[in-house]
Write the C-alpha cells for this entry.
Amino acid sequence: MFDTRIQGTWLLLLGIAEIAPAYADGPRAGFKLNADDNVSASPDRKVRVEQYSKGRRDGGLLYQFWSFDADNRHPFLLNPGEGDDLAGYAAGFRFSPDSQWLVRMQKLGAGYQMLFLYRRKGYRFSPATTKPLGNLA
C-alpha cells in the first residue's frame, strides 16, 4: 500500500513546482539591453527578440540575442556558442507573417551580411539550417 504521508509530500512538491516554476536565467551579467536596437515582436505578439551587448577589451561589442515569450517566463538564447567573429555588430530580425520563422541578418564587416534562419517551436527557436544561409548559397 502507498503511504498517505508520502502521497501528501509528493502532492505538496508538485503544487510548489506549479506555483514557482524554474526559469532560465536570461542574459548573463554584464550584458545590457540595447535601447537603440529595435526589439522585434512576432506578428502574433507571443514572442519577441531582444539584443543585449557587452563591451570587449578591444573596444568592440559582444552580442547575445534572446527570445522571450509574452510573459517573460522562458528566455531562450538564439546564438549559443558563437565566437567573437560575429561580435561587432547588432543584428536585424524579421518574422514570417505566421510567426513560425525568424531571419537574423548579421553584418560581418566590410559590407558583408550573413543570414540565419530559425524555426519556432513554442517559445523556443531552433536553427533551420546547419549553416548560415550565406554559406549554403
Notes: Strands lie at 32-33, 40-41, 47-55, 61-69, 76-77, 91-95, 101-109, 112-121, 124-127. Residues 1-23 have pLDDT under 50 and may be disordered.
